[in-house]
Amino acid sequence: MKKVRIGIIGGTGVVDIENFDLIEKIDIVTPYGRATAPISIFDANGIKIAFIPRHGEKHQIPPHKVNYRANIWALKEIGVERIIAVHAVGSLKEELKPGMLVFPDQFIDFTKRREYTFYNGPKVVHITMAEPFCPELRNLLIENAKKLGFDFSEKGTYICIEGPRFSTKAESFMFRNFADIIGMTLVPEAQLARELEICYASISMVTDYDVWKEEEEKVSTELVIETMKKNVNKTKKLLEKVISQIPEKRTCICSRALEGAEI
Length: 263
Ligand SMILES: [Zn+2]
Fold this sequence. Notes:
The protein has helices at residues 68-77, 135-147, 169-176, 189-195, 221-243, and strands at residues 6-10, 21-26, 29-30, 33-34, 39-44, 47-53, 82-91, 101-102, 106-110, 152-153, 157-161, 181-183, 199-209. The chain has 263 residues and is an alpha/beta fold. The chain has one domain: Rossmann fold (3-Layer(aba) Sandwich). Helix 2 crosses helix 5 (221-243). The protein is globular, with a radius of gyration of 18 Å. 46% of the residues are buried. The mean pLDDT is 94. The structure holds zinc ion (ZN). Zinc ion binds at residues 134, 136, 199, 250, 252, 254-255. The site of zinc ion has 7 residues, from loops.
């Protein structure tokens, strides 16, 4: 099979990308187990892309049970060099309103018990994560979100918690001091991609304010679902634009992440 260079990881609300034509589905078993779903290969206006829904095809796998290593390994195996991952997040800041997209530039890891690395010895590898996201992909996301006239933030710190429970108010107030959005799935996905020299960027869709905010009136489930739908539509439009502009040649740090990382 010809290599597929671009991968999309779907999050809550994005279990399919029906605006592209499905070519085939591939079930991949990796040294780390089975990926959370078969990988769908789509034709995105002449460009082949690989898609995997992080939580499974029926959204049946909770964040702390996702086999992140198998998913990233499976994408690598079919040739993926660039990943755009979609995440549903809560907002920790007044100005990041539900319905907005955020392209995080940093993250903080508050997860507790996940498989964090492909390198458990005898090879010892310490990758650099000072800038955890691909600058080339982030630029494309920002430029295209601007052109589409979306309400978005071009940066933000994503705090990843273990879940599956949401935060207490005390936790939420603490997180607000050093992060902008909160979710359960960015870690270890982002660092595993870096360990395999795959570019990675996130489209984080704000669905609600986290529990820090005292709502004057209770937000209805309908409203949350409505916000989610709008977010998903925007994300799909954005993906379509960005995919068509991803350059074949990589000049970013991600492509050389293992240089000097091995001890
Ligand atoms: Zn990159």
